[in-house]
């Protein structure tokens, strides 16, 4: 490897290849910030302020998972306006994250350039689409969350401030204009040349209150478990070469994120677009299809918000709440799980003090699979030069869109 | 004249300030034309290792590797800029006290784990820093302003007023008058009072402004809330500042 850490991924990691043994390991070097420790002694209301700082690429996902966990602990069911606005934030978040990853981190591999902004000269129409989608997704999150990174309007039970209908109408107009950019991006990714690879993985995604999984070799057979059992089913292991833990789902190597979601939700045009679910490189294509899907979903949500009366009321904590809660969100990179225990004797309501917290991020669930897929790539490309294999391995790690800072947290 | 050679590095953090730079979009393209980015791990594979005219560092140096790299970057750079609260103040990672790290390593990773992290300190604890670009995350307009000042050969200046000034401009009701704690009065402007405008508190992520009346604010805060909450406010981003360690912490201790 010519660099200490893999370039164009979020966070600090590297692949260690033992050419003699034909083995590859994923080393993670990110410093530990100890967020689960950081939360202890803080108030429930401070949790969704602190934890978005786990990741600047998917802060909205962390904000929402923290809110859901706290609301679950305090017996709060948010109103319809809040639910819709949060869903809209998440659409913006998924587009933001996928656009950043696709155009600035992964696409350069497929298009033979070094930096995303080189597209401005080499492929101006593609770059124009990238900027349009980046702008509109930042705008969605800005309009609802108050800032495009690290939300400021959200609170336990609702929003400090909700957007006006005029602001939402404005957003809808912009989305109407950028849909073509989303469409074009899907078409561009349909034409890319994905390196060959076949891996047997458990594709896993949240669906309602369940964790659903299918085999990458046969996506028809869905298996389900309850999100309540997330800690037992998603088992984390500490490795001596990594500051991030490596997880498995029911003892199987799992893959989470765009590719897994498309396999499980089937929310794309499968006649027009062919996806090989056993090839993790297709995660990049899946991200493009999700950009289109969540772009359309954002418009539908705004339509619903505009039709009904906006309810600004913040729901108060219940007196007889359990003080323990789980919050789960499908973040851009896959299932995100928060669990929080509050100390009923310290503080009250939203300001109840946190006793303990647990967070499992999507990339933790992908690390075992990145290693397995890298090994498979090494085994399946034996007739290539070392340089070429290294290039493909790094490209594979990028295709996963790992968030190493999330995985260490 | 050749273009200034620029490096962007990131230590332990969320990388949100770099995302803020990418979110500048067209303005980033315009800036890029005036510089030569020779090292940016998040953005490109191309990597040259100095000498650098301008080195921008995001994140908190937590591991020994990061501390050593920081020192060598300082030696190799004419101008060194801290990007965001983690680099400028130690920020969110410094919520965890050094003496408690051991406890949390054991609890989170188990007894056998060999940690890499030492302590969360700002860049300035180890090297001279030429300018602190504050914020969690940084404000895009401020990034452009400072970059333009640097590129035109000027020494960038800090905002000479507090968040209160911008908060008034934003027409927000005053949190302190509404009996809610706020660090706006002692915090440097430049953020546009965005958090308060969105309904959230100000925890001082832009750092203390030069003439901050910390003691006066402490008196006001003591009338509004308890020492525990005041401590939580000040330790969100400011734990590693001299002002917190030398003025605020001793006074809170006496109250508890």
From TrEMBL, chain A:
A Pfam family: NiFeSe_Hases
Binding site for Fe cation: 58, 406
SUPFAM superfamilies assigned: HydB/Nqo4-like
MF term (GO), any: nickel cation binding
Annotated positions binding Mg(2+): 36, 359, 409
Binding sites annotated in the UniProt record for Ni(2+): 55, 58, 403
Keywords assigned: Iron, Magnesium, Metal-binding, Nickel
Cofactor requirement: Fe cation; Ni(2+)
PANTHER family to which the protein is assigned, alphabetical: COENZYME F420 HYDROGENASE, SUBUNIT ALPHA, CYTOSOLIC NIFE-HYDROGENASE, ALPHA SUBUNIT
The protein's name in its UniProt record: Hydrogenase/sulfur reductase subunit alpha
